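Bumping my old thread because nobody answered last time. Still need a sequence for this structure:
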Protein backbone atom coordinates (compact mmCIF):
# COMPACT_ATOMS: atom_id res chain seq x y z
CA UNK A 1 0.00 0.00 0.00
CA UNK A 2 3.01 2.25 -0.26
CA UNK A 3 2.72 5.53 -2.08
CA UNK A 4 -0.41 6.73 -0.30
CA UNK A 5 -0.79 8.76 2.86
CA UNK A 6 -4.10 8.52 4.66
CA UNK A 7 -5.80 11.41 6.39
CA UNK A 8 -8.06 10.81 9.38
CA UNK A 9 -10.99 12.59 7.75
CA UNK A 10 -10.75 10.63 4.49
CA UNK A 11 -13.48 8.10 3.73
CA UNK A 12 -13.01 5.01 1.58
CA UNK A 13 -15.22 2.55 -0.26
CA UNK A 14 -14.32 -1.16 -0.33
CA UNK A 15 -15.29 -3.55 -3.13
CA UNK A 16 -17.00 -6.32 -1.16
CA UNK A 17 -17.63 -9.85 -2.46
CA UNK A 18 -18.40 -11.37 0.93
CA UNK A 19 -15.40 -13.72 0.78
CA UNK A 20 -12.24 -14.15 2.83
CA UNK A 21 -10.09 -11.89 0.61
CA UNK A 22 -12.53 -8.98 1.01
CA UNK A 23 -12.56 -9.55 4.77
CA UNK A 24 -8.76 -9.67 4.97
CA UNK A 25 -8.41 -6.56 2.78
CA UNK A 26 -10.85 -4.72 5.06
CA UNK A 27 -9.00 -5.83 8.19
CA UNK A 28 -5.64 -4.75 6.78
CA UNK A 29 -7.05 -1.44 5.52
CA UNK A 30 -8.65 -0.48 8.83
CA UNK A 31 -5.53 -1.60 10.76
CA UNK A 32 -3.47 0.83 8.68
CA UNK A 33 -5.78 3.75 9.48
CA UNK A 34 -8.06 3.71 6.43
CA UNK A 35 -11.68 4.55 7.29
CA UNK A 36 -13.95 2.31 5.21
CA UNK A 37 -17.44 3.84 5.29
CA UNK A 38 -19.13 1.93 2.48
CA UNK A 39 -19.07 -1.56 0.99
CA UNK A 40 -19.73 -1.73 -2.74
CA UNK A 41 -21.00 -4.92 -4.33
CA UNK A 42 -22.03 -5.67 -7.91
CA UNK A 43 -24.19 -8.77 -8.31
CA UNK A 44 -26.33 -10.47 -10.89
CA UNK A 45 -29.66 -8.64 -11.10
CA UNK A 46 -31.54 -11.74 -12.28
CA UNK A 47 -30.46 -14.12 -9.51
CA UNK A 48 -29.73 -11.64 -6.71
CA UNK A 49 -26.44 -13.45 -6.13
CA UNK A 50 -22.80 -12.39 -6.17
CA UNK A 51 -21.23 -13.59 -9.43
CA UNK A 52 -18.93 -16.59 -8.99
CA UNK A 53 -19.40 -16.65 -5.19
CA UNK A 54 -23.12 -17.49 -5.64
CA UNK A 55 -23.90 -15.76 -2.33
CA UNK A 56 -27.31 -14.13 -1.90
CA UNK A 57 -27.15 -10.35 -1.49
CA UNK A 58 -29.19 -10.67 1.72
CA UNK A 59 -26.28 -12.57 3.26
CA UNK A 60 -23.95 -9.68 2.37
CA UNK A 61 -26.32 -7.39 4.26
CA UNK A 62 -26.01 -9.68 7.28
CA UNK A 63 -22.22 -9.22 7.07
CA UNK A 64 -22.54 -5.45 6.69
CA UNK A 65 -24.80 -5.29 9.76
CA UNK A 66 -22.20 -7.26 11.74
CA UNK A 67 -19.53 -4.74 10.65
CA UNK A 68 -21.59 -1.59 11.10
CA UNK A 69 -20.73 -0.47 7.56
CA UNK A 70 -23.19 0.62 4.87
CA UNK A 71 -23.62 -1.86 2.00
CA UNK A 72 -24.45 -0.55 -1.44
CA UNK A 73 -25.51 -3.53 -3.53
CA UNK A 74 -25.98 -2.95 -7.25
CA UNK A 75 -27.68 -5.53 -9.43
CA UNK A 76 -26.61 -5.50 -13.08
CA UNK A 77 -26.29 -7.74 -16.08
CA UNK A 78 -22.73 -8.71 -17.05
CA UNK A 79 -22.78 -6.29 -20.01
CA UNK A 80 -23.95 -3.38 -17.82
CA UNK A 81 -21.35 -3.96 -15.12
CA UNK A 82 -18.64 -1.61 -16.38
CA UNK A 83 -21.02 1.27 -17.04
CA UNK A 84 -22.60 0.94 -13.61
CA UNK A 85 -19.17 0.75 -11.98
CA UNK A 86 -18.07 3.98 -13.67
CA UNK A 87 -21.31 5.64 -12.61
CA UNK A 88 -20.83 4.48 -9.02
CA UNK A 89 -17.20 5.60 -8.88
CA UNK A 90 -18.23 9.04 -10.12
CA UNK A 91 -20.91 9.19 -7.43
CA UNK A 92 -18.40 8.20 -4.74
CA UNK A 93 -16.12 11.03 -5.86
CA UNK A 94 -19.04 13.49 -5.72
CA UNK A 95 -19.89 12.33 -2.21
CA UNK A 96 -16.33 13.09 -1.09
CA UNK A 97 -14.87 9.60 -0.84
CA UNK A 98 -11.08 9.59 -1.18
CA UNK A 99 -10.51 6.16 -2.66
CA UNK A 100 -11.44 2.54 -3.25
CA UNK A 101 -10.00 -0.50 -1.45
CA UNK A 102 -9.83 -3.82 -3.33
CA UNK A 103 -8.78 -7.36 -2.43
CA UNK A 104 -6.69 -8.40 -5.42
CA UNK A 105 -3.67 -10.61 -4.75
CA UNK A 106 -1.67 -11.34 -7.92
CA UNK A 107 -3.85 -11.17 -11.06
CA UNK A 108 -2.22 -8.17 -12.74
CA UNK A 109 -4.81 -7.83 -15.52
CA UNK A 110 -7.70 -7.71 -13.02
CA UNK A 111 -5.90 -5.18 -10.86
CA UNK A 112 -5.04 -3.00 -13.87
CA UNK A 113 -8.66 -3.02 -15.10
CA UNK A 114 -9.95 -1.66 -11.78
CA UNK A 115 -7.01 0.67 -11.14
CA UNK A 116 -7.48 2.41 -14.50
CA UNK A 117 -11.16 3.10 -13.79
CA UNK A 118 -10.74 4.05 -10.14
CA UNK A 119 -7.94 6.55 -10.80
CA UNK A 120 -9.77 7.96 -13.84
CA UNK A 121 -12.62 8.83 -11.46
CA UNK A 122 -10.17 10.83 -9.34
CA UNK A 123 -10.04 8.27 -6.53
CA UNK A 124 -7.09 6.56 -4.84
CA UNK A 125 -6.68 2.87 -5.65
CA UNK A 126 -5.66 0.81 -2.60
CA UNK A 127 -4.68 -2.88 -2.60
CA UNK A 128 -3.87 -3.98 0.99
CA UNK A 129 -3.15 -7.66 0.22
CA UNK A 130 -1.54 -7.25 -3.20
CA UNK A 131 1.61 -9.26 -3.88
CA UNK A 132 1.54 -11.29 -0.67
CA UNK A 133 2.11 -15.04 -0.92
CA UNK A 134 -1.36 -16.68 -0.92
CA UNK A 135 -0.35 -19.23 1.72
CA UNK A 136 0.64 -16.39 4.07
CA UNK A 137 -2.67 -14.61 3.46
CA UNK A 138 -4.69 -17.72 4.31
CA UNK A 139 -2.62 -18.15 7.47
CA UNK A 140 -3.11 -14.50 8.42
CA UNK A 141 -6.87 -14.76 7.87
CA UNK A 142 -7.17 -17.89 10.00
CA UNK A 143 -4.78 -16.79 12.76
CA UNK A 144 -6.65 -13.49 13.14
CA UNK A 145 -9.77 -15.52 13.98
CA UNK A 146 -11.18 -15.37 10.47
CA UNK A 147 -13.45 -18.17 9.28
CA UNK A 148 -15.22 -18.64 5.95
CA UNK A 149 -17.16 -21.39 4.20
CA UNK A 150 -16.50 -22.48 0.62
CA UNK A 151 -19.56 -21.60 -1.48
CA UNK A 152 -18.33 -22.42 -5.00
CA UNK A 153 -15.76 -24.74 -6.56
CA UNK A 154 -14.48 -25.03 -10.12
CA UNK A 155 -14.93 -28.76 -10.73
CA UNK A 156 -12.00 -28.83 -13.14
CA UNK A 157 -9.68 -27.85 -10.24
CA UNK A 158 -11.36 -29.18 -7.07
CA UNK A 159 -13.98 -31.85 -6.49
CA UNK A 160 -17.39 -31.16 -4.98
CA UNK A 161 -16.32 -32.47 -1.54
CA UNK A 162 -14.66 -29.09 -0.92
CA UNK A 163 -18.02 -27.35 -1.05
CA UNK A 164 -19.10 -26.33 2.47
CA UNK A 165 -15.58 -26.81 3.85
CA UNK A 166 -14.62 -24.30 6.54
CA UNK A 167 -11.45 -22.27 6.03
CA UNK A 168 -9.65 -22.92 9.33
CA UNK A 169 -6.28 -24.22 10.59
CA UNK A 170 -6.77 -27.64 8.97
CA UNK A 171 -7.75 -26.09 5.65
CA UNK A 172 -4.35 -24.46 5.12
CA UNK A 173 -2.56 -27.80 5.07
CA UNK A 174 -5.26 -29.57 3.05
CA UNK A 175 -5.54 -26.92 0.31
CA UNK A 176 -1.75 -26.86 0.03
CA UNK A 177 -1.77 -30.56 -0.85
CA UNK A 178 -4.01 -29.97 -3.90
CA UNK A 179 -1.42 -27.86 -5.76
CA UNK A 180 -3.90 -25.06 -6.54
CA UNK A 181 -3.50 -21.42 -5.48
CA UNK A 182 -4.23 -21.60 -1.72
CA UNK A 183 -6.39 -18.45 -1.93
CA UNK A 184 -8.26 -19.68 -5.00
CA UNK A 185 -7.14 -16.55 -6.83
CA UNK A 186 -7.59 -18.22 -10.23
CA UNK A 187 -11.24 -18.99 -9.48
CA UNK A 188 -10.61 -22.45 -8.04
CA UNK A 189 -13.00 -21.68 -5.19
CA UNK A 190 -14.95 -18.82 -3.59
CA UNK A 191 -16.08 -18.29 -0.02
CA UNK A 192 -18.37 -16.53 2.44
CA UNK A 193 -16.72 -15.01 5.54
CA UNK A 194 -18.70 -15.40 8.78
CA UNK A 195 -16.22 -14.74 11.58
CA UNK A 196 -13.18 -12.56 12.18
CA UNK A 197 -11.90 -9.23 13.48
CA UNK A 198 -13.98 -7.18 11.02
CA UNK A 199 -17.23 -8.54 12.52
CA UNK A 200 -18.71 -7.54 15.89
CA UNK A 201 -20.05 -11.08 16.28
CA UNK A 202 -19.99 -14.42 14.50
CA UNK A 203 -22.55 -14.67 11.71
CA UNK A 204 -24.85 -17.64 12.16
CA UNK A 205 -25.69 -19.44 8.94
CA UNK A 206 -26.81 -22.81 7.65
CA UNK A 207 -26.07 -24.67 4.40
CA UNK A 208 -28.86 -24.68 1.84
CA UNK A 209 -29.17 -26.49 -1.47
CA UNK A 210 -26.27 -27.20 -3.82
CA UNK A 211 -26.47 -26.67 -7.56
CA UNK A 212 -24.32 -27.07 -10.67
CA UNK A 213 -23.68 -24.19 -13.06
CA UNK A 214 -21.36 -24.40 -16.09
CA UNK A 215 -18.70 -26.58 -14.48
CA UNK A 216 -19.05 -25.00 -11.03
CA UNK A 217 -20.69 -26.54 -7.98
CA UNK A 218 -22.30 -24.01 -5.63
CA UNK A 219 -23.64 -24.05 -2.09
CA UNK A 220 -26.41 -21.75 -0.92
CA UNK A 221 -25.63 -20.07 2.42
CA UNK A 222 -28.78 -19.17 4.36
CA UNK A 223 -29.49 -17.34 7.62
CA UNK A 224 -29.46 -19.72 10.58
CA UNK A 225 -32.91 -20.55 11.87
CA UNK A 226 -33.46 -19.13 15.39
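Sorry it took so long. Here it is:
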Amino acid sequence: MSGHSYQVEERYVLMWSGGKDSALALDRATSSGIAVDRLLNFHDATTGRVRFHATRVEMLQVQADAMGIELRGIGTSWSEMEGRLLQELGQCRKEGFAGVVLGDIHLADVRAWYEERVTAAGLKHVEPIWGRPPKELIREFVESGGRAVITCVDLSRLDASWLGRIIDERFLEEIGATGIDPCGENGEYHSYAFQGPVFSHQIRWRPGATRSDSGFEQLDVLPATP
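Helices lie at 20-31, 57-67, 81-94, 108-120, 134-143, 169-176. Let me know if any region looks off to you.
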